[in-house]
Amino acid sequence: MASSVNPTVRRRRLGQELRKLRELKGMTAEEVAERLLVSQSKISRLENGRRSISQRDVRDLCGVYGVEDHRIVDSLMQMAKESRQQGWWHAFGDIPYSVYIGLETDAASLRVYEASLVPGLLQTPNYASAVTEGSWPEATGADIERRVQVRMWRQERITDPENPLRLWAVIDESALRRIVGSREIMAEQMRQLVQFSMEPHITVQVLPYDVGAHPGMYGKFSILEFNDPQDASTVYLEGITSDLYLEKPNDVQTYSVMYEHLRMQALNADHSRQFIDRVAEEWAAEL
């Protein structure tokens, strides 16, 4: 599904290297921007991997930082070239969360909390279609089909027999109770959720209503972790018009602690599976 070079991750690593060079030079992003006659926001976006970076950008920045070792410059230029390649998801056109998909594709593990929906990686095609149609009223049939296809391709990360993504999902009970599409679709989705929860690399926990107030009441979030120590853990917060990526250690630690509290308050894996199975039977009984 994915090529050996992940452009999103390449861009992210390149940004980290450029930030290190700037800091070694003792310069601020504002000072660099003034030297290159560009905006400070451009420098920041290049460093955090949220903006495509050209080989010319790398050349100019290396000049400002006084990098004389041609091996370093050549390596950074190669990373810039690879970062402009297209990932598998670009074949589906403009996907608003393409940066996240790139990170998810390369992640080793993912912890996700969902308040009102079944997590995308665990959705059935019918449920995903109903979610997209309901949350995007202006979408055409082609738009919906394209989003569902992307979601199903993403699921290959958790079904990969050789290198599956380690997934831990805490799901609020409301996600199991809210009817999406139809009762038949909900029954099918609950049964698939049970099947996924039996996989050794997937853990699903339900946060029942009677828990009361909990740390996840502020909304859903995801924590991505990577095998390469150069890749910092990232907290992903999905928005309506833009997304937020948090990489500072203090931010990641804050959300990690929140997640631990959610895991402790939720039903354990076995009880969650039994709970979801009962909900599936309830949906099926109403058909």
From TrEMBL:
Residues in HTH cro/C1-type domain copies: 18-73
InterPro entries: Cro/C1-type_HTH (IPR001387), DUF5753 (IPR043917), Lambda_DNA-bd_dom_sf (IPR010982)
Name of this protein: Helix-turn-helix domain-containing protein
Annotated source species: Streptomyces aureoversilis
Pfam families recorded: DUF5753, HTH_31
Protein origin, superkingdom: Bacteria
